[in-house]
Amino acid sequence: MRGSRSAIATFLAIGLLGGAGGVVGAQDGPITPVTGIRSSAEDVQFAEPVVDEVGVLHLHGGRIEQAIEWSDPRLPTTMILSGNTDVYGEQGDPNGGVVYTGGVVLQGDDGWWTGMQFGYFPPEPVIAAMTLEGHGVYEGLSAILYQSYADAQAQADDVVSFEGIIIDGALPPFPEPPTE
Fold it and tell me: Could you tell me if 55 and 91 are in contact, meaning their C-beta atoms sit under 8 angstroms apart?
């Protein structure tokens, strides 16, 4: 899985090299690799769980505040996630899993990042992707981040890792779906 994430990031990086400049320049060029590790998670909340007629557990209206130690100071430490989670099957069910979508805010004193996150787990490692847009002093920057557990021990210890890129410019727009 790590190789495919690197291949996707490389593909995205090549496609984005011609992007527009931003107010806050990247440290190493138009694309800067970043990593992070969660140092704490607090204030986990969900609305009342609901099980539907086919047995899917819906945990909607979730909120979690996390502290992330980033390799790049342009990503603020405070990450706030709001989201909806659906649980299919029982733990260990090879045809089950957890699917979630959510909003993301990285909150700093002079600027912030906003975006969307989506993910699925299991299989191992847990993986989620997020796209972020910079505001305030980070205006003109974008980021693509992947969140995962590095391995089974990291998952057992609840050590969440992040890797991705900061882009000096906007993400390209999504194209229209193919008609054929």
Answer: no
Percent helix, strand and coil across the chain, each to the nearest 5: 10, 50, 40
User: For residue 123, what is the enclosing H or E element?
Assistant: none
The string of pLDDT tens digits covering residues 86-130 is: 988 876 676 778 888 999 999 999 999 999 999 887 655 667 899
- The answer to whether the beta carbons of residues 117 and 99 sit under 8 Å apart is no
Instruction: Decide if 165 contacts 144 (C-beta within 8 A).
Output: yes
Of 137, 135, 131, 136, the C-alpha closest to 166 is 131
Taken as a whole, the chain contains a residue count of 180
Over residues 31-76, the pLDDT tens digits come to: 999 999 988 877 677 788 899 999 899 999 989 899 999 999 999 9
Q: Which one, of 43, 93, 96, lies nearest residue 67 by Cα?
A: 43
* Cβ partners under 8 Å of residue 14, min gap 6: none
Neighbour tally for 102: CB within 10 Å? 20
8 Å CB contact between 78 and 65: yes
Q: For position 3, what pLDDT does the model report?
A: 43
